[in-house]
Specification:
Blueprint lengths: L1 H37 L6 H4 E4 L2 E4 L13 E4 L5 E5 L2 E5 L5 E5 L3 H14 L4 E5 L2
Parallel strand pairs: 4-7
Antiparallel strand pairs: 1-2, 2-3, 4-5, 5-6
């Protein structure tokens, strides 16, 4: 009976230690995700819209700044309209399809909008005050 009590007691202790590590790991991952999502240095216009000659690489998601497979490469002729609405910059093509670029604050979206206007010189621009 004492042996089974010790065994159960040590298993509970192990489970608590494991749970502590899992909670700590989840906290660290959450903190890193928030840093990458809301850190203003990740919304530098030259990092969000990368001019590659006839094409532009768009890091429209925070995780695209870590790995290029999450971004999109488009032709400069693809974009016919650029829209700024609050903290979103939207790139439209002729058929009405769009790519949204989200920034955590309006003041971070405005420089991205200006960069888009410089890259897509022939595109119509629209600013919507939200």
């Amino acid at each position: 009976n004492k042996l089974s009590y010790r065994l159960v007691s040590s298993l509970r202790k192990f489970d608590m230690q494991l749970m502590d590590w899992v909670i700590l790991f989840c906290f660290i991952i959450s903190a890193i995700s928030l840093y990458f999502s809301f850190g203003s240095k990740f919304y530098d216009p030259e990092k969000v819209l990368i001019d590659m000659g006839d094409h532009v690489f768009i890091s429209h998601l925070p995780k695209a700044r870590l790995h290029k497979k999450y971004g999109k490469t488009i032709s400069k002729s693809f974009v016919t309209k650029i829209q700024l609405a609050g903290n979103y910059v939207t790139l439209f093509n002729n058929s009405g399809n769009a790519i949204d670029i989200w920034a955590p604050k309006d003041k971070l979206a405005k420089p991205i909008f200006e960069q888009a206007k410089n890259i897509f010189k022939n595109a119509e621009t629209v600013e919507i005050n939200c």
